[in-house]
Amino acid sequence: MADASPPVPPPPPVGAPLPAPPAAPAGAPRRPLWKRPLVVFPLVIVASAVSTAGVLMLLSNIYTRKWESRETVFRVVDLPPGTVDPAEWGKNYPRQYDSYKRTVDVIRTRHGGNEAPPLKRGEPVGPEASKLEIDPRLRVIYSGYPFSVDYREARGHAYMLSDQDVTRRTTEFKQPGACLHCHAAITPAYHQKGREAGIPDDRPREQLMKGFEVVCKMPLAEARGLVAHPVSCIDCHDPQSMQLRVTRPAFLVGIGELAKGEAPVPHLPSVERWRLEGRRGTYDPNADATRQEMRSLVCGQCHVEYYFQKDTKLVTYPWHNGLRADDIERYYEATAFTDWTHKDAGTPMLKAQHPEFEMWSQGIHARSGVSCADCHMPYVREGAVKVSDHHVRSPMLNVNRACQTCHRYPEEEIKARVEVIQGRTRELLDRAEDACVDVIRAIADAKARGATDEQLAEARKLHRAAQWRADFVQSENSRGFHASQEAARVLGQSIDLARQGQLKAATIKTGK
Ligand code: HEC
Ligand code: HEC
Ligand code: HEC
Ligand code: HEC
Ligand code: HEC
Fold first, then answer.
1. Between 325-334 and 453-474, two packed helices, what is the crossing angle to 10 degrees?
2. Which residue's CA is the nearest one to ligand 3's atom 12?
3. Label partner for 265 (CA 20 to 30 A): which of 119, 135, 255, 468?
């Protein structure tokens, strides 16, 4: 590639002795240097030579860059619609594929990053990897639920399928095929199953939804045979145009429900527009969303709160009333949904799951139009080409590109700001978890003293609401960063509700 800075000839010596000017008549003022022809002409010639050279260099540089960037979309292989294997896509887009493969990294940050040496089936869980070892309160909090047996820190995309294979939550408990919805490049399998159920290829959406229904209900072990790869190119890109797209059935349904509702979503302008324009048909992100919105929606396909519907096991995103913890809770109350019954307290519980999309939605970055990809997949310049870093990871390992493009502070300062937010969130979360453990103990204690279910109902209601909120922040993977004030608001509620519940349980009058 041409060097970006053309060699510049040395400037005419300033202050060097000049040929003696013709003697001026005594008393006449000397002409200023820049008006003397002997000085001006060589300067003009040098300047025009330099600028001509500059223009030529620039042109050749632009040409090289154009050529290079054209090369990135040069197709080596034609990608048929159902191509799952990222290596196939990698033949056309080697840069993205290279960085995509780097999600195998295992580098920690203070509150995040990747960890966990690979687990083998049957081996005990390593302490660094286990949330339960790091924070033993969680065993009490999830008592009676598979999460009290094995619950680990998340890590890179490369591991999503194999980590699901080895977790004791699947080896020791029966799980449905629904689990694969966010852990594999699964949409071709949905289409296949939809086709087998009689929906032809010219009705693709219906075919996808039918296959989704079929696979969700299958036993996990059986459905596992339908997939081979973790999240892949096909999940976020159209193979022909390479445009971003969303493919996950539960997301398509969920975002449609969110749009239909009334909750304000100023960070999703295309939803607001669809509402203003008379709410025609169903909101379809692939047709309606802006490119900048798509840079978050592709992640919102999986990094969200979800539940499985009772009999159908359909993966469902509970966004009908909005995206905040309280909005989602209202949906669960209205549908009388319960994940499990707490073993010690007997409370019908909710388990929150990685609500990154929901929490980001409440933060200042979403409000300012900053997408998940801006921080987690920032551009990298490779030669002349700007490439999105497909090494999706903690931005704390990439502050330079992830944050410093917008925030002109030194790296250490930016990291410190994040860690202050995360440290404060952790402190509040500690209080909330302590309070949850206390309300659990108080209810269990009242039960032991002979309190009836009727007497315990009020305390249990408070326990359920308190723990839902603590869990919402605990299971959100930015440790408060994505929306620090929202995290604090939710934890404040949690602490209050748990203490009220504790008081209620402790003051129940029984014979004992
Ligand atoms: C303004 C930048 C920014 C935006 C926008 C953003 N994040 Fe983050 N995210 C962060 C930071 C900072 C962390 C904390 C990383 C750490 O502690 O190592 C984080 C953590 C995470 C984690 C846990 C990562 C880990 O290594 O522990 C996940 C998962 C995540 N974000 C997903 C998302 C998703 C999904 C979106 C969009 C819905 C999003 N983020 C939007 C900056 C951002
Ligand atoms: C809505 C999408 C979605 C569904 C459905 C889903 N997961 Fe996940 N799963 C994720 C995301 C996102 C992460 C990473 C964030 C985290 O760990 O909090 C994750 C992380 C995990 C992990 C690693 C961390 C841990 O929790 O130990 C395991 C194991 C796992 N899931 C198992 C399952 C099982 C079993 C099911 C079915 C019961 C399931 N997943 C269903 C999205 C999903
Ligand atoms: C989780 C979603 C996701 C996955 C999986 C994914 N990408 Fe991307 N990709 C993105 C996003 C987001 C962008 C930025 C697009 C934009 O801004 O318009 C992008 C951009 C691209 C571009 C456009 C040029 C660039 O770098 O910005 C290419 C080419 C590309 N990806 C190839 C791939 C390939 C090949 C794979 C599989 C190995 C892949 N992607 C997997 C989300 C994804
Ligand atoms: C198909 C579902 C899916 C999509 C789409 C997806 N993720 Fe993930 N992501 C996961 C799962 C599952 C894990 C956990 C893997 C594990 O722990 O084995 C994960 C892990 C991560 C991690 C590492 C978390 C940690 O704590 O170390 C980050 C960061 C992340 N995802 C960000 C994103 C961003 C940003 C996007 C959009 C560009 C995105 N993800 C799209 C399912 C998905
Ligand atoms: C695309 C631009 C952009 C990127 C990238 C970006 N930010 Fe921001 N950030 C903003 C904007 C806009 C605000 C809102 C304040 C403002 O308008 O100046 C903000 C606000 C913040 C705040 C103040 C938050 C608060 O609650 O008041 C922090 C801290 C922050 N950013 C950290 C980060 C970190 C860390 C990263 C990288 C992981 C990052 N930002 C990436 C644009 C960006």
1. 140
2. 295
3. 468
